[in-house]
Design goal:
There is one protein chain. By secondary structure, this protein is mainly beta. Strand 33 and strand 34 form a beta hairpin.
């Protein structure tokens, strides 16, 4: 039978007026009319009228399965409640004449209660007839009527969605006059056994309804629209009920999405169906989405979220059509395994050219790190390989380090890939850093310089490097060369200086075979300059010795 919305249904029930629809009860084994009447009717005296209405010959012997018609206004009406089945995040309960407080799993939601569901939070509510309703993030819901009918698990329910969205899964009504109504700032949705979504958009200017199972009747300014499974409709304050419902967009294809996410922020790229102008993504800890820990809408097909604790999750995505209606669900399970987070590699940087005696590596320190794991792979000379594929092969270096910098030894010239992972105090290794591809060019090794002194000159000689025509040098007063005394360039591997005063000095040299990418300096040498007997100090010491 076509479902109709009756705004004044409750008034008729409470006033005792006859309903156009009767409740039909199926007799169970051993039941008699007196017991049924005592349990279900508002007055024991109605049992005789019930016998006459249903033409029952023997009220004490009724065959099991006999269907008894009961006018709704004869049934008991008792106030009932909705109960939280699951809660994620934080929600508030506001009762008349009471201060708002956090909702708990022990609370019962009654008539006139207002439920405020917070951001990245949700509440799954259960009703006595088995219906359930997911109240989504950033929603406000007020309960106008929760009535148990006939002492049975039959509930006549009405509520107001002030803002946000709900997703009811309603048990089939046992009578067309038993309602599950959701009023919004614009209109009403009434159902009889269905699964659907209703959302009041911010500002209360639009209401969306999307039906996944069964049928929903939308009412706005006296007009009605039946919306069946696979359809949706939008109501707005500036217009009337649309002439027809809209077909929902198909589910997004999530078959190619990864099962593990290892890097923050979290990102997933999805291909939206034709006609979509964005998507809505919910994250839950359970496959049945009895709770929601994140809900976001995007104008493209990339889901982005700053962080989620490590663990297993389910993603539910719906394509959004030009009118704002959400399409069919697509669900994908995945794991977040992003901790401890990898450090940021400072050197070598991506696609850099490294010229040194050995490969230097440096990265940022992590507060969660007890140590680090450094891995190095050799890459094809062209650099055309997929770096993620290279990281699946056996590295040429795989070593632990306590500090945040290391020299990875001498290697032949070529392309390499490096990655670093953090290891926490429990020994758990996190995801590797993004691979850094670079070219290593070993710098020519320069042997130690030999020093020679004369009365007025210091000569430093070092082994010539084949093919090198120019050298750069530094002569300083400290090992860090913060106080450089002399520096310059030479065409031969020899440096001649006026003999310095007695003391300790430091010297280093490098080749200049590539002006755009010079090699590093050689190891620093300490040069001790002894006192010269030809200097003033030396003459004075010599005179002192002769006078003894």
């Amino acid at each position: 039978m076509h479902l109709r919305v009756v705004w004044w249904c409750l008034l008729l029930l409470l006033s005792g007026a006859a309903s156009a629809e009767d409740f039909v009860y199926s007799v169970r084994p051993g039941e008699h009319l007196w017991g049924i009447s005592e349990r279900m009717l508002r007055s024991r005296g109605l049992w005789l009228r019930l016998q006459s209405l249903n033409q029952i010959e023997n009220p004490y012997r009724i065959p099991p399965g006999t269907r008894i018609r009961i006018p709704l206004h004869w049934l008991k009406l008792d106030p009932d409640v909705a109960r939280p089945l699951q809660m994620d995040g934080q929600s508030q309960l506001l009762r008349p004449d009471e201060q708002a407080r956090l909702l708990t799993m022990d609370d019962e939601l009654r008539v006139n209660d207002v439920l405020h569901v917070g951001e990245d939070s949700s509440v799954l509510l259960a009703f006595a007839d088995g219906s359930e309703m997911l109240v989504r993030p950033n929603s406000q819901l007020q309960f106008d009527r929760i009535t148990r009918v006939g002492g049975q698990a039959m509930v006549d329910t009405s509520m107001r969605l002030l803002q946000g969205a709900v997703e009811p899964a309603v048990t089939p009504r046992q009578s067309p006059s038993l309602k599950f109504d959701v009023h919004t700032p614009i209109g009403l949705t009434s159902v009889r056994g269905t699964q659907y979504r209703i959302a009041a958009e911010p500002g209360s200017l639009r209401v969306r309804a999307e039906v996944l199972k069964g049928e929903v009747v939308l009412v706005h300014d006296g007009a009605e629209l039946a919306v069946v499974a696979g359809q949706g409709a939008v109501l707005s304050t500036s217009g009337s009920v649309p002439p027809r419902a809209t077909e929902l967009l198909p589910a997004v294809d999530v078959s190619g999405l990864p099962r593990q996410l290892r890097y923050l922020p979290l990102r997933l790229q999805m291909a939206l169906p034709s006609g979509a102008q964005g998507m809505e993504v919910q994250i839950s800890r359970s496959e049945d989405f009895s709770g929601i820990v994140s809900e976001r809408s995007f104008a493209d097909g990339e889901w982005r979220l700053g962080s989620l604790p490590d663990g297993h999750y389910w993603l539910r995505v719906r394509a959004i059509d030009p009118s704002g209606l959400r399409g069919f669900d697509a669900v994908h399970g995945f794991e977040v395994a992003a901790r401890p987070e990898p450090p940021i590699v400072l050197s070598p940087t991506m696609d850099s050219r490294v010229r040194a005696m050995s490969i230097p590596a440096e990265w940022t320190r992590s507060a969660d790190a007890a140590s680090y794991r450094v891995r190095l792979w050799r890459q094809h000379p062209s650099g055309s390989e997929d770096l993620s594929e290279i990281m699946l092969t056996t590295p040429i270096i795989d070593q632990g380090e306590k500090s945040s910098q290391v020299k990875l030894g001498s290697h032949s010239a070529g392309r390499y890939v490096m990655s670093i992972a953090t290891i926490d105090a429990a020994g758990r290794e996190g995801p590797p850093s993004l691979p850094q591809s670079f070219r290593f060019e070993p710098a020519p090794t320069i042997g130690a310089a030999q020093s020679a002194f004369s009365a007025h000159e210091l000569i430093l000689r070092w082994p010539a490097v084949p093919g090198v025509q120019r050298y750069a040098y530094q002569w300083g007063a400290d090992a860090d060369f913060d106080q450089v005394i002399l520096e310059g360039e030479l065409h031969e591997p020899v440096l001649k200086l006026p003999r310095p005063r007695r003391g300790i000095y430091y010297f280093r040299v490098r080749v200049l075979d590539d002006p755009e990418f010079p090699a590093p300096f050689s190891a620093t040498q300490e040069i001790v300059v002894p006192m010269s007997w030809h200097s003033a100090g030396g003459v004075a010491i010599l005179l002192g010795i002769l006078l003894l």
